Description:
Elements: E1 5-9, E2 15-17, H1 20-26, E3 29-34, E4 40-44, H2 45-57, H3 63-74, E5 77-80, E6 86-88, H4 91-96, E7 102-107, E8 112-116, H5 117-127, H6 131-136
Antiparallel strand pairs: 1-7, 2-6, 3-4, 3-5, 4-8, 7-8
Amino acid sequence: xxxxxxxxxxxxxxxxxxxxxxxxxxxxxxxxxxxxxxxxxxxxxxxxxxxxxxxxxxxxxxxxxxxxxxxxxxxxxxxxxxxxxxxxxxxxxxxxxxxxxxxxxxxxxxxxxxxxxxxxxxxxxxxxxxxxxxxxxxxxxxx
Length: 143
């Protein structure tokens, strides 16, 4: 399970370290793609395949399904860890997430998000006062 948030730098080639515990859970290779809220999502190969199977089972006759498939698959890249525990974040994905030198790696239970420091701070500031409201609406989801 992916937990916590960790600050890491991105070098000039676009490489960044993923925390050791998270690397263990991801394996030697993983999938990185565009996430929601202008961040990146990182999945183990197994988790990505499960999501892909569900997404591929949806009716492609629906425009919103096709759009989500294009978003999810069309922006995905398989990456592997080097000996220093780094992945190379492809340039189009760095651009999507506005990643500069500093990034935040955030555990999301079954996957990881990568945020730019500025966007992570802005997101936390914007949602800080609404956690109670969000929690109240979770009853419908049996949370």
